[in-house]
Amino acid sequence: MPAYRSFQLNCTCGHEFKAILWDSINVTEQRELKSKLMNGEINQIHCKHCKKKSYVEKRLLYHDMDQRLWVQMFPGSDRTKWQELEAEHKEILKKKIHIRKYHFRLVFGREELLEKIRIFDHKLDDRIIELIKLKIIEQDDNVKNIPDANLQFSQYLPEVGEIHFKMISLEKSISQTLAIPYEHYDELLEAQEHVKSPDKSAHRICDGMYINVNKMRTFH
Where are the domains of the chain? Predict the structure, then answer.
């Protein structure tokens, strides 16, 4: 499969034009693509007629050979089909005999992809990050009463021993940073909740390739 293709698109202004969109990027072979992705330049289109810039959300494969990270992104609108898409992707990976001992992940939407990249860049376990989110949703009174609260990992600050999450609620018009002591990460890692009984929410969140607390939630 080629890394990118030409697509015929229609702008909201009515202008029709061709644009090059990426199907996959290998940030080890083409390192400049990583910064372009993080800056929003990958699969961004520009209508020469009305000058509007917009982002096209489509399937995109992210491959980092150095970190042995293989992330397949689907449009956010496909999240409800995560079980079907995970089964489909597992069949595809069976044919990829040249890749072993990789971190295989599914994400939905650009923000989930960027978050996953940030987590691995900080050398953290994304399963533990999702379990911290679960604890926040279940125990933080300021979060659990917000039905559409969306938590995303933003950074790890080892010098102060904190992991930062951004909490966003469109319903409440909230965007704020939550600082969590790194000790919580260590405690969850040591407890190994993510590999225990399949009946537990923690295990279900961390099982498979779609590792995300949103598997346990319904957004309104």
Answer: 4-121, 126-216
